[in-house]
Amino acid sequence: MSKLEKTLSIIKPDAVQRNLDNEIKEIFKNNGFRIINEKKIQIEKSEAEKFYKVHETKPFYNDLCSYLSSGPIVVMILEKEGAVKANREIMGSTNPKDAAEGTIRKKFGISIDKNSVHGSDSIDNAKIEIDFFFKD
Ligand code: CMP
After folding, report:
1. Does 94 contact ligand 1 (Cβ within 6 A)?
2. Ligand 1 pocket check for 116: Cβ under 6 Å
3. Closest CA to ligand 1's atom 20
4. Are 104 and 96 in contact (CB under 8 A)?
5. The one catalytic residue among 6, 12, 80, 118
6. I want to staple 114 with a disulfide (CB 3.0 to 4.6 A). Which of 72, 76, 110, 120 is the partner?
């Protein structure tokens, strides 16, 4: 059996703006995740730049950071056995066009930028991303 893990999930501006946050939270809960902390916030572009620093050399970095800071987001700590991988499965592929049926991005994603949710891609990054938003 996998270990109990925590991962960071963000409901992005496109989904919050369409009032999909509760529906997305229900999907996580129905799939066995526990939301152990959550907050609705809007971040500055400079904070988005720090959060997405791993992508700073990518051509889409500037637009990505403008977008994440363009409206309210919901950041959550999700807990479940094997949470990092399980979250990536339930989110689906980065590009909603490639996402499998039944995944959050297939259901709600609009484009590769407006893909409704973010999730940590590894256990190490989950720790870093959780600290980024919840270390006070
Ligand atoms: P996310 O999981 O939040 O991590 C980085 C984000 O960059 C990704 O989701 C996408 O929304 C966005 N992005 C925009 N263009 C690309 C691209 N070409 N490849 C990967 N991610 C992209």
Report:
1. yes
2. no
3. 94
4. no
5. 118
6. 110
Helix ranges (H only) for the chain are 13-17, 21-30, 45-51, 61-68, 83-91, 104-108, 123-134
Q: Is 60 in the pocket of ligand 1 (CB under 6 A)?
A: yes
Cα 1 to middle of ligand 1, angstroms:
31
* β-pair type (117-119, 4-11): antiparallel
* C-alpha span between 56 and 131 (Å, rounded): 20
118 is catalytic: yes
- How many whole angstroms from 32 Cα to the centroid of ligand 1? 26
The class that CATH gives domain 4-45+71-133 is: alpha beta
Per residue of the chain (136 residues), what is the pLDDT tens digit?
Answer: 679 999 999 999 999 999 999 999 999 999 999 999 999 999 999 999 999 999 999 999 999 999 999 999 999 999 999 999 999 999 999 999 999 999 999 999 999 999 999 999 999 999 999 999 999 7
How do the domains of the chain map onto residue ranges? 4-45+71-133
